[in-house]
């Protein structure tokens, strides 16, 4: 793609100051996202995926502190913007679908009221009859996400809706102002497989239709493979691999990515063929963290992996941060 990135994150580092020590949650993260592109951000729970998204929106925990890097959105550095500027962007230019819709939605306000709050906040609806205009736009927002009988649903409370319906409402809220960038943080958590597919079809369909950049955060590699143009793999606050989806799944180059794939069920796979990722994420409060944070879990690690962090080297748009990247022969032997 020749167009410049809509979102361009470079060298982004963030830590949390806690009573038990400083947690170095993100270190030197690079990420780009272009208009109309759907990028999957994958990795185990605790890899830093959601932490990164919250930081970009300026809604991190009070204990969080950005220590390095830039995050350009449409030419503006999000990290240098004041709260008033970020508040104007959130919901209008950058929106987010959170993990748990029942937690994110206000339980004592109707679906229509919550949609109207967003539209009114960003002055999307107007005219001589503001109330009628807001109602019409909120009904249309529900119609856009394929909610049946949207006129009636605007009067419903979240507890009156199913989990899948609540997730559609969350998507309607996120897309009501037609943002340029959507961050979908585990949008299918807790949904059955059929509803998962419906929600993902909805998000990606609207993203393609509106040419909206979409960052899809998930630990589900199979889901990312079905819907994303590119995949960015995170481990313990580091980006370890980034590539077009087909290239990544055909030939993962980082040992962590290959391990994730071997632990993911696929069509025709049996429980005996699944291989878990060894060990666990390192304690990010440690003063002696290895330079490559996967070194303690990797069978190929040597002394250099512990002392020198590998750069994200790209070959034909396939970037990998590893001193010992996997080759096609290595992969064949591992699965042979």
End-to-end separation in angstroms reads 36 Å
General shape? globular
Strand order of the largest sheet: 6-7-8-3-9-10-12-11
What's the tally of helices? 13
The level of helicity is: 25-40%
Based on DSSP secondary structure assignment, what is the total number of beta strands? 12
What would the keywords be for this entry?
disordered C terminus; 8-stranded mixed β-sheet; alpha/beta; 336 residues
Characterization of this structure:
The chain has 336 residues and is α/β, with parallel strands linked by helices. 34% of the residues lie in helices and 23% in strands. The protein contains 13 helices and twelve strands. It has an eight-stranded mixed sheet with strand order 6-7-8-3-9-10-12-11, with helices on both faces. Strands 2-1-4-5 form a four-stranded antiparallel sheet, covered by helices on one side. The longest helix is centred in the middle third of the chain and has 18 residues, at 193-210. The protein is globular, with a radius of gyration of 21 Å.
Question: What would a concise description of this structure say?
Answer:
This protein is α/β, with parallel strands linked by helices and 336 residues long. The protein has helices at residues 49-57, 83-89, 101-104, 111-121, 130-144, 150-153, 163-175, 193-210, 221-227, 245-250, 255-262, 303-307, 328-335, and strands at residues 7-18, 21-33, 38-42, 64-73, 76-77, 94-97, 181-185, 213-218, 230-235, 238-244, 313-315, 318-320.
């Amino acid at each position: 793609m020749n167009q410049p990135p809509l979102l361009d994150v470079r060298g982004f580092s963030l830590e949390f100051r806690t009573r038990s020590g400083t947690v170095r949650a993100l270190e030197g993260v690079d990420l780009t996202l272009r208009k109309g592109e759907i990028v999957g951000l994958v990795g185990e729970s605790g890899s830093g995926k959601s932490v990164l998204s919250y930081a970009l929106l300026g809604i991190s925990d009070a204990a969080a502190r950005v220590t390095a890097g830039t995050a350009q959105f449409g030419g503006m550095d999000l990290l240098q913007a004041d709260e008033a500027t970020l508040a104007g962007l959130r919901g209008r230019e950058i929106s987010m679908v959170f993990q748990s819709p029942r937690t994110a939605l206000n339980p004592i306000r109707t679906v229509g009221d919550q949609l109207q709050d967003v539209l009114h906040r960003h002055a999307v609806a107007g005219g001589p009859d503001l109330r009628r205009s807001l109602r019409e736009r909120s009904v249309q927002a529900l119609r856009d996400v394929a909610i049946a009988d949207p006129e009636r649903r605007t009067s419903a409370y979240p507890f009156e809706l199913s989990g899948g319906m609540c997730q559609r409402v969350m998507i309607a809220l996120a897309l009501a102002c037609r943002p340029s960038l959507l961050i979908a943080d585990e949008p299918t958590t807790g949904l059955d497989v059929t509803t998962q597919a419906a929600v993902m079809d909805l998000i990606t369909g609207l993203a393609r239709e509106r040419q909206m950049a979409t960052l899809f955060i998930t630990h589900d590699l199979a889901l990312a493979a079905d819907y994303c143009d590119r995949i960015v793999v995170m481990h313990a606050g580091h980006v370890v691999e980034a590539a077009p989806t087909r290239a990544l799944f055909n030939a993962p180059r980082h040992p962590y990515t290959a391990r994730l794939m071997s632990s993911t069920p696929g069509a025709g796979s049996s429980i005996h063929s699944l291989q878990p990722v060894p060990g666990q994420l390192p304690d990010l409060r440690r003063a002696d963290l290895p330079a490559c944070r996967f070194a303690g879990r990797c069978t190929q690690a040597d002394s250099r992996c512990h002392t020198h962090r590998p750069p994200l080297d790209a070959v034909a748009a396939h970037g990998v941060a590893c001193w010992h990247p996997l080759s096609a022969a290595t992969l064949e032997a591992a699965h042979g």
